[in-house]
Amino acid sequence: MSFAVGSLVRVRGREWVVLPETTPDTVVARPLGGGDDEVAGFFLPIEKVEPATFQLPDPSEAGDYRSCRLLRDALRLGFRSSAGPFRSFARLGVEPRPYQLVPLLLALKLDPVRLLIADDVGIGKTVEAGLIVREMIDRGEIKRFAVLCPPQIAEQWQAELRSKFHLDAELVLPGTVTRLEKACRMNQSIFDRFPYVIVSTDFIKADRRRDDFVRDCPEMVIVDEAHACALSGDGRGARHQRHQLVKLLAGNKNRHLLLVTATPHSGNEEAFRSLLILLDTSFADLPADLSGDKNRQVRERIAAHFVQRRRGDITHYLQTDTPFPEREEKEETYKLHPEYQRLFKQVLEYAKESVSDTTLNKQRQRIRWWSALALLRSMASSPAAAMSTLRTRAIDANTPEEADAQGRQAVLDLVEDDSAEGTDVAPAGAEVEPGDQSEAGRRLMTMANAAEGLHGAKDAKLKRACAILEDLLASGYNPIVFCRFIPTAEYVAAELRKKLKGVTVEAVTGLLPPKEREDRVNALDACEKRVLVCTDCLSEGINLQHLFNAVFHYDLSWNPTRHEQREGRVDRYGQPSPKVRALTYYGIDNQIDGVVLDVLLRKHKAIRTSLGVSIPLPTDSEQVIQAVFEGMLLKGKKKGPGPGLFDELLVDEIDQQWKSATEREKLSRTLFAQQTIKVEDVVREMDAAREAVGTGVDVAGFVRTALVASKAAVDGDLAVRIDLTEAPRALKDQLHPALGLRPGKEVFTARFELPVTGNEILLSRSSPAVEALANHVLNAALDSHLDGPARRCGVIRTGKVAKRTTLLLLRHRFHIVTKSGSEEQPLLAEDSHLVAFAGSPQNAEWLPPGVAEELLLAEPDANVSAEQARDFIQKVIDGEEHLRPKLAEFATARGEVLLDAHSRVRQASRAKGVRHRVEAQELPDVLGVFVYLPKV
């Protein structure tokens, strides 16, 4: 016997819903009222599986006036295959903001999906990409996907996909490959074995791995930090390898591709266009100037593949506020201790002498150059970093190019070309081996010993920082202190532990594996006052807004984008504090910080303030830094900070490049403003999706009512205190693991919307606790042996009706069939529906849909005896056969609405001959019967 998707069967003493994975010899089903974790398969040759019908309510088990509303909300909140325009929304662990539907709607208009998501930092690009992937999976259009990203954010992606989209992806990193390969069969690749993978871009881009990945790559690929895959000008290096990898993946014309970046231009128009070509090869022929009415159609073509919004564009969108914190920025300064200043001058003189030696070959000159920069940067950072650099032998390179590559990696902050991973080690700067007795060796050792003597009391930078951090903590802020090098971070953390009483100070650097970094950060949740000292290994990847609300730049970055990344860890959606602080800290007499501040950081900040978004450094940062230090080390024009350190013409040139980059960004946002998706389209689909699965307001009302009806105590408005002490054991047994509460803990604080603080629990629509509560309410109503807060029937006497009116809560199950060529693919969709009629079933006067919703809010005005209630409900059940034709009509009509919604948002598929049809179960389940009697 075969069973249709969505049909009801009985096996092992209970009813089950048949799922699309069913085969001719195996029925895959979910228990009626159960969750995805209860799905089971039944092998027909040995299991007795029979068709089943849904039983009508028992009139003797009538509930009160809350029952219908509770039951309806529990049903919708328990759906995992909802109706509405999107298949995925019942499976989300996050309620999307209205603006986050724009990329989803844009993607569903494309086939294949080729989209560049370039929204501003902190808006939620990961959620936007995840929505698209989850929807494509639930529509049956893809079975596999891969995320390409920098290695340090791979675990962040894994956690986001698991918690928000219920997708368990494997990490493909150097440290995991061996384990994953052991799980593969002979001649089976990792990408065949595991359908969902998160892959280090830099690991897989190597020639020996790239070809295998391209051959077995999934149908959909997300490329995070896509600007690092834009075409580089020199046609070599890591960026070029990344571009070649993604270009090969894009070469499959059927592959879906999402490019994700907050900086699509990377300061370079050619790089931006190289990303567009990955979306559509015809973009290679774009005119140089895209402005003007003659290029309107070209711009519209690009806009169909490109979405880019600033915070200001979405803060108030479709009457929904998305709260972002206000960023308060301030500069703080320090002056070096006299002994520190003397050592700084000695190191500077040594560096000048070192790079001025013209007798060396080019290779040695480049090594000397990078060693000098390393010494100066470490001196500006801390005595600990200076001591490490002075005592470590400089890089060993065989060619000038190799010396430059190693030096750039160790000293500079190359955000666009290289990740922050592994670059926080203090650079080497000693010309000779430690202990060398030459003049240079003795000189280096003397300076290293002097640096060691500056720890603590003679470190004015640290002393001033302690006072600033004490003020922050006293004002209620929990700061992150960003340092450039590992020795600095460890030294600063150790000193702060001594000086900040009653404050927990933790240090996190690149010495720790990513998982341990995250664990150390999360452990701070239990500490009321906390300071996190870290390197740039945390400047991207781990979102820290739930624990911290201030950033203190102990060391200036030499790349403005890195500063923005640091501040973006706390200044983002979901930050519970209304304000965040960003403190830029620099020395006014250390001869380095002032130049970096004037030429790079302040310019970047001014542009971000005027434009509303950040733009990358519009020139090669190495060129700027090299010019700065050539002036300092070779020309010696000026000993203090400021642009006078180097050629004023270069200052003017950089300034002009900043202005040009700003104008390009303004023009880009004007040319490619997102007009493909109309606001009214977003409103329509958002309302339809919310009606199908329930909104955040539904969640709050349901949770409060269900818990109170279950004898729990619920107090508070935004932050809600919930006490489960008096709740039934069966409910607590389900809620405790879902909430993550330890045994015996009965009281907790929750919110129904972001932001939440570290000790609060978010109860979103798809949070495990809300799902557990919904399942408890529904299962208790379906099982007469359980004492739940809702019943499947009831009678209410109220002034809201003039004659006897019956409300029916219906559950529809639909079989959505997608046909492409000769292949058909089934999907299951579930829907709830309220209908109402006046009079008896034999002479039913069916009422408009809005009447049924209004009756849900009715409260009793008089009592109804149990005997009366039973009689009225029995009359409805006895007349059920007279209702069946109309219920069948409702099912057909709902199916047509579902078909329209399903097809409407996936317009592109129709162009390829893909067709859909919806088959409704002949009759919906009558889940609830509620009779409303007029007030006597």
TrEMBL record:
<feature type="domain" description="Helicase ATP-binding">
    <location>
        <begin position="106"/>
        <end position="282"/>
    </location>
</feature>
<dbReference type="InterPro" id="IPR027417">
    <property type="entry name" value="P-loop_NTPase"/>
</dbReference>
<dbReference type="GO" id="GO:0005524">
    <property type="term" value="F:ATP binding"/>
</dbReference>
<dbReference type="Pfam" id="PF00176">
    <property type="entry name" value="SNF2-rel_dom"/>
</dbReference>
<feature type="domain" description="Helicase C-terminal">
    <location>
        <begin position="461"/>
        <end position="623"/>
    </location>
</feature>
<dbReference type="InterPro" id="IPR014001">
    <property type="entry name" value="Helicase_ATP-bd"/>
</dbReference>
<dbReference type="Pfam" id="PF00271">
    <property type="entry name" value="Helicase_C"/>
</dbReference>
<keyword id="KW-0347">Helicase</keyword>
<dbReference type="InterPro" id="IPR038718">
    <property type="entry name" value="SNF2-like_sf"/>
</dbReference>
<dbReference type="InterPro" id="IPR049730">
    <property type="entry name" value="SNF2/RAD54-like_C"/>
</dbReference>
<keyword id="KW-0067">ATP-binding</keyword>
<dbReference type="GO" id="GO:0004386">
    <property type="term" value="F:helicase activity"/>
</dbReference>
<keyword id="KW-0378">Hydrolase</keyword>
<dbReference type="InterPro" id="IPR000330">
    <property type="entry name" value="SNF2_N"/>
</dbReference>
<dbReference type="InterPro" id="IPR001650">
    <property type="entry name" value="Helicase_C-like"/>
</dbReference>
<dbReference type="GO" id="GO:0016787">
    <property type="term" value="F:hydrolase activity"/>
</dbReference>
<dbReference type="InterPro" id="IPR057342">
    <property type="entry name" value="DEXDc_RapA"/>
</dbReference>
<feature type="region of interest" description="Disordered">
    <location>
        <begin position="418"/>
        <end position="440"/>
    </location>
</feature>
<protein>
    <submittedName>
        <fullName>Helicase</fullName>
    </submittedName>
</protein>
<keyword id="KW-0547">Nucleotide-binding</keyword>
